[in-house]
Amino acid sequence: MEKLIACVQKRPSALCRLICFPWAGGGTSQLARWGKLFNDSIEVFCIRLPGRESRLEEPFAKDMTSVVNEVTSVLLKELKEKPFAFFAHSIGTYTSVAVALHLKEKYGLEPVHLFMSAAHAPNVSYRIILADVKSIALPDEHNEFLACMEMVGGNYKLPHNEEIRRNIAVTSREDIRLFQTFSFEKAERNIFSCDITYFCGSDDKTYDVQGWRELTSGDTSFYEFPGDHFYLLKPSNESLLIKHITRCIEDAGL
To answer: Which parts of the sequence belong to the Thioesterase domain (predicted)?
Structure first.
């Protein structure tokens, strides 16, 4: 499990596990550290996909199905063991939804809460724009990455280190290709019964957040934080996010 999951603070007596799915090109460092910031009621797992960090030598995942199968097979015991919730940011949102759909359909398991951040609901047409990313003709990988980030609403500056810039660009491109293999039937409504909370930055592009209402029979709520696509990297926003997520999970009556 250590290959797939980053868990910096084990809490075997936690009431709930929060499974985090990073953004395109992202690793586990930022979200995994949340494990030390939550209280003892929540244990944080962060998903580490192939092709990065300790899995750098592995080939990137070729399609969403392979990712879903790996996540569910590795975590199934833990997901059956105690309640769990998902947090996902940007393109990582679609991976989390794909996993949640599979768990619901095959195992009858459902998160107690879905926390979605800076992404359109998968049942709205705007997401089709990203399907054409591969057709962009740009002179280098860095510009391709920045163009992709602009499409999803990101205002992002690449680091100055050339090797880091290249790795982020390559990984982001592969993550977007992974997204392109995610199939979602728009006709599907009220798939889930859990509550959904959607977060975004005030300076980010406008998302069709209402689409999230169609995915669940539970309650949906929307919160805006000051900042751009990566609003959650601001310490003040991070603190408020963690407090809100904690309150939602603890109020679920687990």
So the answer is: 17-246
